[in-house]
Amino acid sequence: MTLKYDVVVVGAGPAGSSAARYAALGGCNTLMIEKRQEIGSPVRCGEGIARHFLDDCGIPYENKWVAQEVKGAKIISPAGNVLKIDEKHAGNEVGIVLERDAFDKACAKLAAKAGSEIWVKTTAVGLLKDDGRVTGVRVKRLEEEFNIEADCVVAADGYESQVGRWAGMKTLMKAGDITGTLQYRLTNIEPDPDFPHYCEFFLGTCAPAGYIWVFPKDECTANVGLGISLDRLKNKMDLKMYLDAFCKKDPRMKRAQFLDMVTGGVSTCPPIKETVRDGIAMVGDAARHIDPITGGGIGNGCLAGMILGKVLSEIKERGGTYSKEDLQPYEKGWRAELEETLYRNWMAKNKLVTLSDEDFDKIIATLSTAGIEKLSVHAMLKVIKERHPDLVAKFADMI
User: Fold this and answer.
1) Any idea what DSSP says for residue 157?
2) pLDDT value at position 370?
3) pLDDT of 24-34, one tens digit each?
4) What distances in angstroms separate CA 48 from CA 100, 103, 297, one per listed residue?
5) Could you tell me the CA-to-CA distances from 64 to 42, 50, 289, 364 in Å, in that order?
6) N or C end: fewer C-beta atoms under 10 angstroms in the chain?
């Protein structure tokens, strides 16, 4: 059995659904496949997103996938110094804490409404190629294996993207550009004046070359997790050791109880050199659209997916071939929106991992009294340079 589509999207996360939605809206005969039996499950992230992405990407707000709206972010140094930032200026992971499984399903519904077909429990097992050009994907659906021909295959299959590797994309990363993560969903957390109204980020040796997050889900429940660079981990159990130590130290969690636990990994690397070739495009985590400092990528994935979907539909409209040249407007489009910030944040991440707890204490104490309004690397470094020029020596090339 062989089927034929204009576009086949591999992976039904927010980036894949966004690409499928906008490709279908523009007239592409589109199929989106998902290897799991349920879109959005299991949840493997902190579930934070800035609300501007909803407007940017045309995603209608729905209460059923909003767990908690927050006022902003709190960044806490090892000594307990606190920087508070209003949610409008707190970055791309702050504003709404999602019910991620429901959000992913809502994004897939938008793709379906636009005209995309969706298959679950369907795994890509290889690419079809003709003289180096990708011409489709081989899939296993339930117990049946067959080919699906496509003018363009979209790799939206996460940061471990097999589809990208099969196409010859250079997606290998150094250990220092991969972060191991562990997250608990805890309930029976005791509130304080700021919980559950802020997303919290804890810096320093509590999570070497990473951070700990507390993202509130309701008045007594939160995602409590941490990310640590793989080059700082001796074994996976270190993640649990660090997170358990943090929870034991935080008095709010004295009587907290587990609802679930998830572990995984995330890329914290610079943008990759190419995300398109003849007949294929990469998007979302697969394309390294993840913020290297925060490890967050939901909003970036939605935005890049929209850009890709619109380009795919434009190619269809003008009768193009989905060649690498045809796909350049996507390559240029997502880079214009995201690349500078992603690259700058990757450079900053590499500097941040060299700072001591004392450095973080000085930085957060300085920023908290400086009236800084926007959580951007450049804005923070300018403030620190005025008061602690010694601290920004490592960052001189970024100011």
Assistant:
1) S
2) 67
3) 999 999 999 99
4) 9, 11, 9
5) 17, 17, 26, 36
6) N
Per-residue DSSP letter, 5: E
Q: Which residues are paired to 273 by β-bridges?
A: none
CATH 3.20.20.70 fits 2-44+100-172+271-348, yes or no: no
State the Cα torsion 210-212-215-216 to the nearest 10°.
180
- Mean residue pLDDT of the chain comes to 90
Are the folds of 2-44+100-172+271-348 and 63-98+174-267 the same? no
CATH superfamily of 63-98+174-267: D-Amino Acid Oxidase, subunit A, domain 2 (3.30.9.10)
**Does residue 95 contact residue 51 with C-beta atoms inside 8 Å?**
yes
| 208-223 pLDDT tens trace | 888 999 999 999 999 9
Q: Cα(160)–Cα(163) distance, rounded to whole angstroms?
A: 9
C-alpha 17: how far from chain center? 14
DSSP-derived letter for residue 231 is G
SS3 of residue 326 by DSSP:
coil
Q: Give me 112's structure tokens.
A: 């379906």
Q: Is 6 exposed, middle or buried (0-12, 13-18, 19+ CB in 10 A)?
A: buried
Pairing mode, if any, of strands 144-155 and 2-10? parallel
> Domain-by-domain residue ranges, the chain?
2-44+100-172+271-348, 63-98+174-267, 354-398
- Bond before 292 cis per omega within 30 degrees: no
pLDDT digits (tens, 9 = 90+) for 307-353: 999 999 999 999 999 999 999 999 999 999 999 999 988 888 888 88
